[in-house]
Structure prediction request, 436 residues.
Amino acid sequence: MSIFKEYDIRGIYPTEINEEFAYKFGQAAALYFKTKITVSKDVRLSSPSLTESLIKGITDAGCDVIDAGLCSTPMTAFISKDFNCVAVTASHNPKEYNGFKVLRKGVIDVSLSSGLLDIKDLMDKESKAEKKGNVVKQDFSKEYITHVLKFADIKKRLKVVVDTGNSAQGIIIKKIFEQLNCNLVPLFFEPDGNFPNRSPDPSKPESLKTLQETVIKEKADLGVAFDGDGDRTIFIDNSGIIVPSEAILLFLAKKLMKKGETLICPINCSKSVDEYVENVIKGKVIRTKIGRTNVADAMRENNGIVGGEVSGHFFFKDNFFKDSGDITLISVISQLSAENELFSEIVKEFIKYPQEHVNIKVKSMDDIEKALAQLEKEFKGKEINKIDGITVYFDDWWFNARPSKTEPVMRLTIEADNQDILKEKSEQIKKTLEEI
Prediction:
């Protein structure tokens, strides 16, 4: 059960996820969907054999399969507008991991609360159909690139350093840039499941060192790093500095939103988001629980124009309300190409408050509930939001504390009006949590 996460399935290969598991999961997915399933995979070394077993499980249960081959998660999401899909991927996890992401036809994520547990229950049921399903191969890249390029509006030629981290993303980015008026500087475009150059997780500062150095060396206008399955992006400005994801979200909102329209973001995003959207755009911000499926669901339910997370997921109404690293990059390039200022100067408009994100280990998952209760008691009488963990608001600072879904860790976000307040309040919260 531990490999069934809130939004997908992930575990270490072959001890937690292996070919036998993939076969049973394929049978269960066929029983769940009862119709044709498209299967895709990432570049991990275990992906080919897991995909083969997954497909065999599906076809043995009587369902047809479209083998889409090597795909990013955004491409798989695009395919899911017409088909139920299972992607073999472990996203940004280290190379020894693998897993599955499931999407229902209509570009709907299948999460723990919307089908994954049903598929899990079906894994115990043997299903050998009298007539096996058929397998056909299909390349969706041309159709996908056409969709992505609808977001392109390049006003002037920019130099862009793109780091795909040896993921499948390098293949599609190369094809996309062949049709863009941009000077591409590629980093780590060769697909390699060993991920020899950096971690598949671009949110780690050490993963961005080469990208930052290359942006400065090449005198590029900006840089971007993708995660292992292509749905997250972390941006670097022209001076080699990491741009906070909230700043990218507001940069996108500036172009995409109109008065009265809605932006979606999780509870742990900067209050700068609300201030800019409400005061400058005259729009509305709706906050959700943290997690990409929560943001995607809220986008759809509230007709959100654009959405984003601190982790680097960005969502677009015109992309079926889903996130896409490709569309994020093209949208940022297009908007920047119409500006007269450097990227580093533009994003200053959106970055107002110092912020800290930390993980605090506790003894057990039970201690997390004690910690939340203690924090709530300590700040009794203040404005408290319980949409995800607890978020407490003050005039000059706020914090969010929430439990990790998978380990005894409290995830803490603190933001203040200045660095001195941030330091003081950060020490106060950490002391409370460490005493649990």
